[in-house]
Amino acid sequence: MMSIQLLYSRQVPRTINCDPAMLTRSANAVTNDEILAILSKVKSKHPVGNAVLDAQIALDVYAALELRGEIISNLKSNGIDEDIATALANVSVIEVCDSPACSRCKGTGLFMRAGEGLIECSKCHGVGSFVPSGRELHRLVISYLPESKRMSRDTFKRKWYDIYMGAVDTLHTEAGEAAAYAKDILRKIENENEYREVG
Ligand SMILES: [Zn+2]
């Protein structure tokens, strides 16, 4: 089956150009029109998750901005100060959408340990992408705050860490739901195409 990575990168022309092998159609291959139709369905059903996948895979900066705006308004509606909401939103979008693959597991979330086989990567806790340490996270958040609102690492940990992680988890969850929905549609189309080809 076509992967979600490929589905989302197929809408970026440079990706298509750089790999002609991808254009070779196999019997049940999904056409570009079908890809666009799938993406628009995912977008209308899971707008936030779709934006996360767009930002993560297609490196869509507008999608990242949209997510940032979404998080800021959520946090503000929970009574959080605008500057702090903005800083938390900036960093959570960076962590979820821009973060490079984890250096230990190369993005797989799994790590081979002698005698134990594949285990959950201890560096990223199975997430697969770079997860900032408490110190890095605090430094990053306060870099987006005006001096008067910068808090100590301790205060950040006590008062803001859970709220920050809530935003990160929401983005991951939404992306997971959008990807699962996209896979469902892809599977259906690929099965239909195969049937058509055989019949
Ligand atoms: Zn890892």
Task: Give a verbal description of the structure.
- The chain is mainly alpha-helical and 199 residues long.
- Helix content is 64%, strand content 4%.
- The chain is built from 8 helices and 2 strands, in the order ααααααββαα.
- A hairpin with a 3-residue loop joins strand 1 and strand 2 (117-120).
- The longest helix has 46 residues, at 153-198.
- The two termini are 20 Å apart.
- Zinc ion binds at residues 102, 104-105, 109, 121, 123-124, 128.
Layout of helices and strands, plus pairs?
Blueprint: H1 4-9, H2 13-18, H3 32-45, H4 47-57, H5 61-77, H6 82-98, E1 110-113, E2 117-120, H7 134-143, H8 153-198
Antiparallel strand pairs: 1-2
Bound molecules: zinc ion.
Short key terms for the protein model shown above:
199 residues, mainly alpha, two-stranded antiparallel ribbon, 8 helices, 2 strands, flat, binds zinc ion
Shape: flat
What is the helix fraction of residues, given as a range?
A: 55-70%
Largest sheet: 2 strands, antiparallel
How much of the residues is beta strand, in percent? Answer: under 5%
> What is the oligomeric state here?
single chain
Number of helical segments with 4 or more residues:
8
From N to C, what is the helix and strand string? HHHHHHEEHH
Instruction: Please tell me how large the radius of gyration is.
Output: 20 Å
The low-confidence parts are 14-20
